[in-house]
Each structure stands twice: as C-alpha cells, then as structure tokens.
Amino acid sequence: MKTLFIGGIKSGKSRSAENYIKKLSDKKPVYLATTEFIDDEMQERIAQHQQQRKSDFITVEEAINLKEKIALQEGAVLVECLSMWINNMLYREKSYAQMEAEVANILELKQDIVFVINDVSCGIIPENKLARQFVDISGKLSQLVAQKCDEVYHVVAGISTQIK
C-alpha cells in the first residue's frame, strides 16, 4: 500500500499521516525523517515533530538516499517529508531526473509507504530561479507519487479528505 498526504505548511498533514500509518501497521512504523538541521528555527520545527510522534515510531534519519534506507526496513515507513528531501537534493545540485528516478524506485518497493509533501500548487510563481525550480519539481513529483499511490489525502486545517 502506498499513500500520499499532501497539504500546505502547517495544514496538519504530518499528524494525519502519522495517525494513518499507526493504524496501517501491525508493529511500530518507521519514521524516515528527511529534514536536516540547518538553523535554529529548523531545529525547533524538528523538535516539535519529535515531540508530536513521541515513542510511537522508530526514527531513521536520511536526507538524500531514501530508497536505500526504506529498502532496509521491515515494516511500514512514513517518509516525512518529500518537500525537505527535494530541498536537500537541490542544495546538492541533483537534477530532476535523479529525483524522479529515486522516487520511481521507491514506489516499486514492497513495503507499505506513506509519503508527506507540501502542496505548493496554490501560490504565485516565485521571483527567483531556485524557488521556481523547487515549485516545479515539487509539483511534478507530487503528480508522480499521487498517480502511483493507492490512496491520496489532501489535508486542510487538520482535516484529511481522501481524493483518491
């Protein structure tokens, strides 16, 4: 089973995905954290997510090689989140083709995987090239993941609505 939770920043998508995977899994699921400690503000966000998930998950951290880490897991995996992974990949000057290949390979894995990604499709076209590149890649990868997932949920104001 592959599932996607998509929503805006602070929409409640992470909490919805966490609750979903806990019900899906018969044992403690893996929380694959992709966010890197960049600055104090990001460290605070990470701490909030750690507090939110408590000891309900086995936490594995990986900023780049998601397929490699997911393939090592025995149970269900929550990928939190693809948006930060895209950011990490762009920072390391990885191409869209490399990202697309990695995501396509992840989608072929046998594990139950729940993905979280920010919905960036409702904003304006950013003024700088890197931000436009992020938005474009995020939109394309969201489409790829949603197409291949068994279920897709859009989250707004903490409410998850199944759209696929």
What is the annotated CATH architecture? 3-Layer(aba) Sandwich
CATH superfamily name?
A: P-loop containing nucleotide triphosphate hydrolases
- Biggest sheet details: 7 strands, mixed
Which range does the strand content fall in? 15-25%
What general outline do the C-alpha atoms trace? globular
Give the assembly state of these chains.
single chain
Active site: 49 (gmp-histidine intermediate)
Function: Catalyzes ATP-dependent phosphorylation of adenosylcobinamide and addition of GMP to adenosylcobinamide phosphate.
Pathway: Cofactor biosynthesis; adenosylcobalamin biosynthesis; adenosylcobalamin from cob(II)yrinate a,c-diamide: step 6/7; Cofactor biosynthesis; adenosylcobalamin biosynthesis; adenosylcobalamin from cob(II)yrinate a,c-diamide: step 5/7
Family: Belongs to the CobU/CobP family.
Comma- or semicolon-separated keywords:
alpha/beta, seven-stranded mixed β-sheet, 45% helix, globular
Structural summary, described in words:
This protein has a single domain (2-162), classed as 3-Layer(aba) Sandwich (Rossmann fold), CATH 3.40.50.300. The protein has 164 residues and is α/β, with parallel strands linked by helices. The two termini are 13 Å apart. The relative contact order is 0.24. It has 6 helices and 7 strands, in the order E-H-E-H-E-H-E-H-H-E-H-E-E.
